[in-house]
Design brief:
There is one protein chain. By secondary structure, the chain is mainly α. The protein has three domains: about 100 residues, no CATH class; about 160 residues, hpI Integrase, Chain A, CATH 1.10.443.10; about 30 residues, no CATH class. It has 16 helices and five strands. The longest helix has 20 residues. The radius of gyration is 30 Å and the shape is elongated.
């Protein structure tokens, strides 16, 4: 038998030696690396085991209770849809197709949940996307806010809640707090000229400065409360209902609890506040979420339209004013 010469024996010889030492399965696992080994292990799991393991993964990622509940609901439905079949991109798409009548944002949310599961499973669905139309937050006039406060001031019932409701709305407008954050606010979170939002979206804490007037109102309102009481004694859903009812009395359509947050953001940007600071105050993780408000307050867009209007007002423009002050086409 010929000897192998040189300091580097052929690969086949190396593989033979390695396979004898490690065994074929161990050799395969060694070549796959940690991620490959993880995927191989998952491939041999039952669906019951897969979804149980993934649930633990979601918990470890620190999902909020609300998001975790929603993800579990969709994943449970996907589990039932699969029955005894192994998860695959094709079956995942079939499952998501059941929700084609849902709104784009809902379909996109469901798709994100299933795609995250499939990526963890080792079968990413990079070719599958749900297009969500770009929409702008509503723009709220200052006069609408005054109508809302007037509706609170002139309530015919529950007059004892006027001070609380007025403060609730003002705080929403001057801090941009989410309805859940307003519901969870406690006296111990309020510190003179600022308050701390504990466990906001994504369990992130943030500090929000308070204007002197509202800081004084808050201080007077909570002076007899225990540190861990809820300031407004309302759950998040109750705040939504209350704002909707007040808006209806004020004759405002489409005004809801989140509108106060939109108003806070647009007011700041209109006054020239740096968008990064607005992002921090709102508690947005992604700057792109905050940038949506720039489309509403972009002064350049307003100036462009104003320029066209000025051109039309000139002597050579196509418009004139009749004797009643109405704008009418010029006749030449």
């Amino acid at each position: 038998m010929a000897e192998v010469g040189g300091s580097n024996p052929p690969i086949s010889t190396k593989a033979s030696v390695l396979s004898e030492e490690l065994g074929l399965r161990e050799l395969l696992e060694e070549l796959l690396g940690p991620e490959g080994r993880r995927r191989l292990a998952l491939k041999n799991k039952t669906n019951e085991e897969l979804f149980t393991l993934y649930d633990a993964e979601l918990i470890l990622k620190g999902r909020s209770a609300k998001n975790l509940e929603m993800e579990r609901q969709i994943l449970t439905k996907f589990h039932s849809y699969l029955n005894d079949s192994k998860p695959s991109p094709e079956l995942a798409k079939g499952f998501l197709s059941q929700y084609s009548s849902k709104k784009p944002r809902t379909r996109a949310r469901y798709a994100t949940i299933i795609k995250s599961f499939m990526k963890w499973r080792g079968q990413p669905m990079d070719d599958f996307k749900v297009k969500v139309p770009k929409t702008l937050p509503p723009y709220t006039e200052d006069s609408d806010i005054q109508k809302l406060f007037d509706a609170i001031e002139h309530k015919q019932t529950h007059k004892g809640c006027i001070v609380r409701d007025s403060l609730l709305v003002e705080l929403g407008l001057k801090t941009g707090m989410r309805r859940s954050e307003l519901a969870n606010l406690e006296p111990k979170d309020i510190h003179g000229d600022f308050l701390v939002v504990i466990g906001g979206k994504g369990d992130k804490d943030r500090m929000i400065p308070l204007a002197p007037v509202i800081a004084k109102r808050l201080k007077n309102f909570i002076k007899d409360m225990e540190p861990d009481e809820k300031v407004f004694k309302l759950k998040a859903v109750s705040i939504s209902d209350k704002i909707r009812q007040l808006a209806k009395k004020a004759g405002l359509s489409g005004f809801h609890a989140h509108t106060m947050r939109h108003k806070f953001a647009t007011d700041l940007l209109e006054k020239g506040v740096n968008i990064k600071l607005v992002q921090e105050l709102l508690g947005h993780t992604d700057l792109g979420t905050t940038q949506v408000y720039l489309s509403i307050v972009d002064q350049g867009l307003h100036d462009a339209v104003a320029t066209l209007e000025k051109e039309n007002e000139g002597d050579d423009g196509p418009w004139g004013i009749d004797d009643k002050g109405n704008k009418v086409p010029r006749t030449y």
